[in-house]
Design a protein that fits this description.
CATH superfamily: Formyl transferase, N-terminal domain
CATH architecture: 3-Layer(aba) Sandwich
Shape: globular
Number of domains: 1
Largest sheet: 7 strands, mixed
Number of strands: 9
Radius of gyration: 17 Å
Strand order of the largest sheet: 3-2-1-4-5-6-7
Mean pLDDT: 93
Helix content: 25-40%
Strand content: 15-25%
Low-confidence stretches: none
């Protein structure tokens, strides 16, 4: 992409990845990008509070507020358009993005997943369920993945990955803490690369210029 990224962050929880993104923008690590809107399906999400504290437009938007899926998706797309959004970052957003939104923002929606995709992805694989599955499998490593969002869960082109070891005595909570720290590194870095025009996506193939 070229030009400034006008980002909407969609989050359902405490907003730690949102904070990591904002910190990177504030420090100048990410340039030519700003977070202009935060949307959550959870009215009590910490992400909404982070947005308010930072003077960013925030919106509670839930399917339960609407009579149909179509009405909800129309309202979501309208909010994105109204705020001039040209890029979407999912940060612990626990709802599947409808194909109408994906089509409108094709290759401009990314997500961070708490495992090394394609392993431990797909329906039901979020939060503690991912870490429980990793530990149960006996895997020696886990990590985090930033990927493009398409019509399938955890399926789109991979932008960045980073691994962490799985300790013999790990619990889902201890592993989650280690993976979360990695997410806070690679998610802002992925956005930085998009903002600087260093990511080129053609179908499932991704070209990323070397780090400068």
């Amino acid at each position: 992409m070229t030009g400034t990224l006008n980002i909407a962050v969609l989050a359902s929880g405490r907003g730690s990845n949102l904070k990591a993104i904002l910190d990177a923008v504030r420090s100048g690590t990410i340039r030519r990008a700003r977070v202009s809107l935060v949307i959550s399906n959870n009215p009590d999400a910490g992400a909404l509070q982070i947005a308010r504290v930072n003077g960013i437009a925030s919106l509670h938007l839930s399917r339960q507020q609407f009579e149909s899926d179509e009405a909800f998706n129309t309202a979501l797309l309208s909010a994105l358009t109204r705020h001039g959004v040209n890029f979407i970052a999912l940060a612990g957003y626990l709802k599947k993005i409808h194909s109408s939104i994906i089509q409108a923002y094709r290759n401009r929606i990314i997500n961070v997943h708490p495992a090394l995709l394609p392993a431990f992805g797909g329906p039901g694989m979020y939060g503690k369920f991912v870490h429980e599955a990793v530990i149960k499998s006996g895997a020696a490593i886990s990590g985090a993945t930033v990927h493009v969002v398409d019509e399938q869960y955890d399926h789109g082109a991979i932008i960045l990955q980073k691994s962490v070891p799985v300790a013999p005595d790990d619990t889902p909570e201890t592993l989650a803490a280690r993976v979360s720290a990695i997410e806070h590194e690679i998610y802002p870095e992925a956005i930085r690369r998009f903002a600087e025009g260093k990511v080129k996506i053609e179908e499932q193939h991704v070209e990323i210029e070397s780090h400068v």
